[in-house]
Amino acid sequence: MRNALAVGLLTLTVWMCVLDGPYRFDDHLVPLGDPASQSLAALGDHLAVTLRPLTKLTYALEASGGLADSAPARRAVSVAIHAVGAVLLALLLAHIADDKRWGLLALVWALHPVHAEALLAVSGRSAALSTGLVLAALFAQLRARHHLAASLLLTAALARETAIAAALPVALAAVAVDRAGAGSRLARAWPSLLATVATALWVVSIPRYRDLAEFSFLGRPWAESVAAQVAAIPQGLTLYLRPDLLSADHGTALPVTIASPGFWLGVGCLAAVSAGTVLAVRRGAVAVSVGLALWLAAIVPTQTLVPKLDPLTERPLGLALAGI
């Protein structure tokens, strides 16, 4: 625990040094322009129709507390959330490896510049918040706290809907640590699977999600978007080693046909990680199976079949790096 707290403190100290500056890019839409983010009362009025209600709750609390005019103060909240995520990752790594020293790898994750977009844009908080909750769900599952893990997984999806894919690593964590037979495995995994179904039903019930899905699939060429998003996967991975290329808006020209080598390289990445996950599960390699599944959970929702405006975005890469 001491090492994990040290990781969190160092994370907090380093990121607190770079908080100055005005609101940026999507901040002017969320949280500044979103009705549900303006106060707790406004959130209550829009709760049935708003997206990412848990993230909006943090914005509403800040606005009600007089922080709406201070972008640095709101970034500090995101950094604090990220620091808690670093502590959780350190505990998770130490638990899996049964060695406290491995938890120091969490510091490498926590200080990597790939998190800059999620932390320095206030609108990126959904990524930091959902990442921390997913890591908490994994840790709870590995500690046999199955209902707690399910609750945390559900709240992660309420912070950012793509976290629903984290049901895969959480379910694998339930299966991987089990030694008592198939019946017990199902008993361990069903709370998180039930939370996933509940989240999916909630997403379907919100009209705004249906409108966004319709716009995504009908508002732009589906095949070209998917080709570009898959081709962006290997380019995104290079950002771990080339932080000088990080940007809020890459504007990178990506291939838009399935005949391109970049697309098939992205397909190869997805296939290799999927195959590695299956092989690790069969061999009982807990850390490998959960880590690879976490990578898939971060990448698949935004880089495969659902078209989006920007093929290459960095926010999913933070959770994916935790998997690595």
What does this structure look like?
- The structure is a single chain.
- The chain has 324 residues and is mostly helical.
- It is built from 15 helices and no strands.
- Helix 8 (146-159) runs parallel beside helix 10, helix 13 packs antiparallel against helix 14 (286-303) and helix 14 (286-303) runs antiparallel to helix 15.
- It starts with a helix and ends with a helix.
Question: On the 0-100 scale, what is the average pLDDT?
Answer: 89
Estimate what percentage of residues fall within beta strands: under 5%
What would you call the structural class? mainly alpha
Radius of gyration, taken over Cα atoms and rounded to an integer in Å: 19 Å
The number of helical elements comes to: 15
DSSP strand tally: 0
Order of helices and strands: HHHHHHHHHHHHHHH
Poorly predicted tracts of residues: 179-183
**Helix amount, in percent?**
55-70%
**Shape summary:** globular
Distance between the termini: 22 Å
Taking the sheet with the most strands, its summary is: none
Q: Assembly type of the shown chains?
A: single chain
Features of the shown structure:
mainly alpha; globular; 0% strand; 15 helices
